[in-house]
Amino acid sequence: MSHADDLPLIFERSRAGRIGYRFPPSDVGPAGAAGLPAGMYRERAIGLPAVSEIDVVRHYTNLSRRSYGVDLGFYPLGSCTMKYNPKIDEDVAHLPGFAAVHPLQPEEGLQGILALLHDLTARLCAITAMDWGTLQPFAGAHGEFTGMKLFRAYFARRGESGRTKILVPDSAHGTNPASAHLAGFEVVELRSSRDGVVSLAEIAPHLDERLAGIMLTNPNTLGLFEPEILEISRRVHAAGGLLYYDGANLNAVMGRARPGDMGFDVVHLNLHKTFGTPHGGGGPGAGPVLVKEELRPFLPTPDIVARDGRFALDSDRPYSIGRVAGFFGNVGILIRAYAYLLALGGDGLAAASDRAVLNANYLKERLKGLFDLPYDSLCKHELVLSARLLKEKYGVTALDVAKRLLDYGIYPPTIYFPLVVPEALMIEPTESESQEGLDAFVDIMREIVRDARENPALLREAPTRTPVRRVDEVLAARRPIVRWRPNLPET
Amino acid sequence: MTHPYLPHTQGEIASMLQAIGAPSIDALFADIPSSIRERGGIALASGLSEFEVERRLRELSEANSVDRLSFLGCGCYDHIIPAIVGHIVGRSEFATAYTPYQAEISQGLLQAIFEFQTMICELTGLDVSNASLYDGATAAAEACAMGLAVQRGADTILYAATLHPHTQRVLATSFADRGIRLLAIPEEEGAASLHQLQPLLDKRVGAVVVQSPNLYGYLEDYGGFAEAVHEAGALFVVSANPMSLGVVRSPAEWGADLAVGDTQVFGFPPTLGGANAGYIAAAEALLRKMPGRIVGQTVDGEGRRAFVLTLQAREQHIRRERATSNICTNQALIALGNAVYLAAVGDGGFRAVCDLNLEKSHYLFSRLTGEMGLAPYAGRPFFNEFTLRLPRPAREVLSRMEQAGIYGGVAQERLRPGSDPRLLTIAVTEKRTREELDRYVAALEEALR
Fold first, then answer.
1. Separation between Cα atoms, residue B58 and residue A338, nearest integer Å
2. Could you list the pLDDT tens digit for every one of the 449 residues in chain B?
3. Domain for residue A317, yes or no?
4. Domain check: are A389 and A408 in the same one?
5. Alpha-carbon distance B334 to B266, whole Å?
6. What does DSSP say about strands A424-427 and A211-217: parallel, antiparallel, or unpaired?
7. Nearest CA to A110 among A94, A122, A123, A98?
8. DSSP letters of A442-485?
């Protein structure tokens, strides 16, 4: 690949005199603008590019060709649920009757969107066996933070502010301990059992008057359903604690198990995982939080309430934790998720989970001869393999396997997570893939393992067919360049 | 069941079950306790066809009022959106991608975010930025958390009483139950003042956060603020509507360490406030304290320029409970749209749209305060939004104007229950024509009659 393939930055395409957009001329004259006092004007120049409209379109269209989405192919990124994002959801989210709605217009003019958000909350509650919720949180981690704040408000109201410990398994997403810590809790890490799940013995020493609760992902990040969940729930509740459900993996169990029935008090969902909204290259997503009745008084304000066939915003919640968002969260994403729920219905959601689990177990059966499988039991929506043996025998790592997959035009699994598995490859096929798609993936993995044995350099040097070769992450962190400047030194 | 989103045929399901060695799909869920499974069903109706979904959503959308002439602002604005923004943001190579962990297959997205970061640095005048935060309010909370982290032993955040009330409430949610003191800098005639700030500053203060244009739309004068804040060892955080920065003094020119705000104004419609991202920009020295994803420039194995998510040692997936923030998913696609908007308008267009906002808002302001003789809330400069003190409650006036097909602004009382009910905040963007502004004057005259 030659230097000519390097795409210039939009700033490097700039040529003085070009414009990419023309605003209408002023029809009021400049008279009023003289009103700013001299010291209020900006003096520093702004370095935006001068490019024509076609320059902008070609630039970003070409950049899009160096990006990889679910619409292009298989995306088995574990824990991220990269399922199909229906196109009708995009269309309805852009309807003018939604797009032009202002958050501070009178409630009478918001009846359609409030009805949608109210019904979305109710439907999410039906799926999870919870009682009510908030749609404000912008993402899963934001939902976790909101949920932890609800825990704190609940204990404060009960005069139990001494409950400061949150138990988090070592297999949990990093956001769990980070969110609990930011909300003011002390995090106690639980070691996974040899079977990869939470053991009662591990939590027993922490069931005291300082226990605030436990955060669990179920099925967990190894794709395993917690077999002792009912007993964990009973004991944590008996000790005065609460249970938090990280809904990142809800796509495994819809129609089969509801967090509320497992004993969870607070749940967050990732609409951009389970409910088919696009990930957007890292957001926007949405992380609604649902609660059992006893935590309802603490939910963020405003609440959306139905009164006499109308919908209203209600901020009269004296025990509320307050706002967690400037307005109502990522409403565009909430609209998309609602359309997804309508399109699938109760039976469709259950079928989605059934097939996600079928796909994961099928891949597990077909791949376990090729890689080490640390936990060989029934899995749910994802499976975790280990490249440990490839590393020991041929010096090929999980990273090398991932980079080689890029040469086949497949987005690789999540690697080096969960932390409890060395050289982890975490694979989540989702329900969107057919058997032939999975078989093609297995064939590629087989070729990769063969190459690891016969020609390991091929993996260590991968990728070779992507627009750039393996990037130097160490250099990026050692000498950070996070913005363009006109005279940057050549790197 | 068959469904367009679910590709498996019954034959495939049978063949896959056979490969697994399971008698049925039910058997794949045998690890779930039966008492949970028995109740696990979802009591929701069956799915609708695409046609029916579209019809239902269209009905809901039409139950909203969007045909009024709008002068609503206070944190969410109705600006012109170049057609290309939606087309680029809608490209599914971007929209259906995940966070670009695998850099080699994600160079396009990474480069676009790098460009976004550069543009935010240019606008704010600061050195570094990130791939976006959730919104301006949560970005303000993140900035304050940085101040508390930088200033050892600090337990106090000072915020201007003229900060958007929703931002104030988000700060309260974030910090109030953690032993952090949140103290308001009292307003002086519609703005924060050095005079009110100084007595509150001491070594306990980690961050001072102010907003300009503020909750009334007024531009604040931060002369002397940065020196006073730095003297106390704290960080100076300015929340700014980035649309104003084409003409108004930038946070860096005021000596800010951090700038935050909402980017909806660059290419996204109001959408109930939900098509938005937060931006954050900082002085170079704060780079390693920044929350969230940061795209950095590096080289590939053959020495070519390449981009990658960098400084990940700050982040939750590496550092877990010791991370600088818990943020993971951000608002990348909005940031990308912001970059497309700013690239299209360029320096000249950005200056032009800022001037249009200034001119049109001042045209309306001078008609209302001049010939109509209405009183401004304070005699302060403004960008595209200003506040009047009406002779009677704003809510009453607004509902009369609505009968004339106009959303006439936001009653301050709506944002701050208990505040002066006569205060009305009016936003005027470049979309409003002179004819519409004249209609506003006539409607307000009628409503006040």
1. 13
2. 899 999 999 999 999 999 999 999 999 999 999 999 999 999 999 999 999 999 999 999 999 999 999 999 999 999 999 999 999 999 999 999 999 999 999 999 999 999 999 999 999 999 999 999 999 999 999 999 999 999 989 999 999 999 999 999 999 999 988 889 999 999 999 999 999 999 999 999 999 999 999 999 999 999 999 999 999 999 999 999 999 999 999 999 999 999 999 999 999 999 999 999 999 999 999 999 999 999 999 999 999 999 999 998 888 888 888 888 899 999 999 999 999 999 999 999 999 999 999 999 999 999 999 999 999 999 999 999 999 999 999 999 999 999 999 999 999 999 999 999 999 999 999 999 999 999 999 999 999 99
3. yes
4. yes
5. 9
6. unpaired
7. A98
8. HHHHHHHHHHHHH-HHHHHT---SSSS-SB-HHHHHHS---S--
Pairing type for strands B69-70 and B406-407 reads parallel
A358 and A338 in a single domain? The answer is: no
* Cβ–Cβ pairs < 8 A, chains A and B: 732
**Contact A425/A415 with Cβ under 8 angstroms?**
yes
The contacts of residue A257 (CB under 8 Å, 6+ apart) are A225, B29, B32, B36, B37, B40
Residue A285 in contact with residue B134, Cβ under 8 Å? Answer: no
Q: Which residue of B has its CA nearest to A149?
A: B173
A310 and A448 housed in the same domain: no
Domains held by chain A: number: 2
Chosen for mutation from A161, A460, A483 (greatest number of chain B CBs closer than 10 Å) is A483
Shortest alpha-carbon distance between residue B193 and chain A (Å): 15
Binary contact (B63, A111; C-beta < 8 A): yes
Domain that holds residue A306: 88-344
B-chain residues near A403 (CB < 8 A)? 102, 104
Q: What burial letters (b/e) apply to A106-135, b meaning 16+ CB within 10 Å?
A: beebbbbbbbbbbbbbebbbbbbbbebbbb
Counting beta carbons within 10 angstroms of the beta carbon of residue B64, is it exposed (0 to 12), middle (13 to 18) or buried (19 or more)?
buried
Q: How far apart are CA A143 and CA A136, in angstroms?
A: 8
Contact B243, B79 (CB under 8 A): yes
CB proximity B428 to A under 8 Å = no
Q: What is the pTM of this model?
A: 0.97
Q: By 3-state DSSP, what share of chain A in percent is helix, strand and coil, each rounded to 5?
A: 40, 10, 45
Domains and CATH numbers, chain B: 69-78+347-448 (3.90.1150.10), 83-341 (3.40.640.10)
Partners of residue A246 on adjacent β-strands: A217, A268
Query: Are A319 and A225 found together in one domain?
Result: yes
Of A18, A102, A475, the CB nearest to B76: A102
